[in-house]
Every structure is written in structure tokens, then in C-alpha cells.
Amino acid sequence: MIIIREKAALIEAVKKAKSEGLSIGFVPTMGGLHAGHLSLIDRCKAETDFCIASVFLNPTQFNDKNDLITYPHDPVQDESLLQLAGVDVMFAPSVEEMYDAGETAPKFNIGRVAEVMEGAHRPGHFEGVVWVVSKLFRLLTPDKAFFGEKDFQQIAVIRRMTEVSEDMNQIEIVPCPVIRESDGLAMSSRNNRLSLEQRSAAPEIFEALQAGVDAYKSGAGISEVHKLVVDLIDQHPLLKVEYFSIVDGHTLEDVKNWDDADDVVGCITVFCGDVRLIDHIRFISKE
User: What pLDDT, on a 0 to 100 scale, did the predictor assign at position 91?
Assistant: First the structure.
């Protein structure tokens, strides 16, 4: 594995790989790597010839400075895991390398997919996401980029960003399934911040989502399912729902009836103590 920290060196490595006829796969991460990230690496290696993973804790997507400070990361372990996973290039730039002094965020016509749910609760978050991902995409010009579906809305935002950008619309965005712990908790770097008591409570988020799907299958309406899921989670003293939205999986707009869309997804954010956890579940699949 080659470790690159400068943009110019990354451009040259990509240029060399492309000159050899290799397809470029990209897995962007913020570090704090776990099995979920490694599943993206495996998928990338299976579908492309040259696998690049970035490890960059991006400050511009944190609307809460304390969240940035406490975000779990271990550069030495991240490097070791990527080495063992067989990544071709690890790109680990500094903040100063990624962002020029005085640089401002680019403007993209993302629309509603960036305004609802996380967009409403974390002002500026998606502006920072598209800022850094657009920079990375333009540096790498990958054939495919791989993202975990745990961040369901983020995939919709990034896909929209590429659609409205002439220099990025050839990049294929590949969504990859959520990887869960044995008790159902979606793997996340933030899980490392949970106390033992909080970690014991956190799986109840997915249990409630599954109960919601069971209720839907038994004939419950949207409002009934919404109330059931929120009540099941909020009854635990360590858990508090920030939002639970049942949406069209394409537009991310709320649905009022189950037949409003062919892809219906429940997206949830829950505070477990002071740790913010996100998850989702499909009620109706377009497949």
C-alpha cells in the first residue's frame, strides 16, 4: 500500500494507474475504521482494478465543534487496517493540504434531498460533505465510489451532486449494505463513544425499526408505525428520538400513505446519551 498525503502525488498515482488501463475505485472515510468500512473496501476491490481509500476527518461537515473534537479516530490503526485489507493507495491529507486559506464552499444545486432530515437538524452539514467529496472526486476522477447505506441521505446528496456536475456525472455511486453488530446495532465510528450501559441500550433502535416493519406488514398505517417506533425507543431512559421520517427512497420526501412510492424507507436519528446515532430500514423495496 502506498501512503499519499499530498494532492499532487495523488493525481500522479491516479494518472499512472489510468495509463495502465486500470479502473479506479474510491472509498472515502473519516477514519475510525471498522468492519463496515472494510466491507466497502472489499466491494471496491471486487469491482475495480485500483482501490484508493481516503482517511480525512473533514472539519467543514461538523456543525457541532464538540462532535468534531470527540469523533473517534486512530490513524495508526486505520493505516494498519487498510494495509491488511489490500488497499492500493491510502490518501491521508492534512486539513491545510485539502483546504486553501480563505477557500469557500462550492455551490451545487442539490435541492430538497439536502434540506430534509439531517439537512434540517444539522445546518451546514451537507454543504461540508459535498465540499470535501467534490474535491476528492475531482482529484481522483474515479470510475466508481463506494458508500455505506447507513448514511442513507448522504448517498442521495452525493448522487445528486454528481448528476448536476458535468465533470463528475460519469462517476458511478455504489451504495453498500449496512453492516451490523450481532445484536443489530449499525456499525459506526461513533459507537466507540458509548458507555457500556449506552451500548447495551443502543440495539433497541433497530429492534424498534423492525417492530415498525412488522406493524406495517400487519396493516398499520404510516402514523401508527411512526408512533410505535418513536414510543418504543423513547421509553428507554437512555434513548431519545431526534426525528423519525418515513420517506420516498428516491426524493426523501415524507410519504402519507404506503402506496405513495415504490421505495419507502424509515430514517431515524436517536441520541443515546450525548452520542448521536443514525439508522434506517426499508418498508417497501423498489426491487
Answer: 98
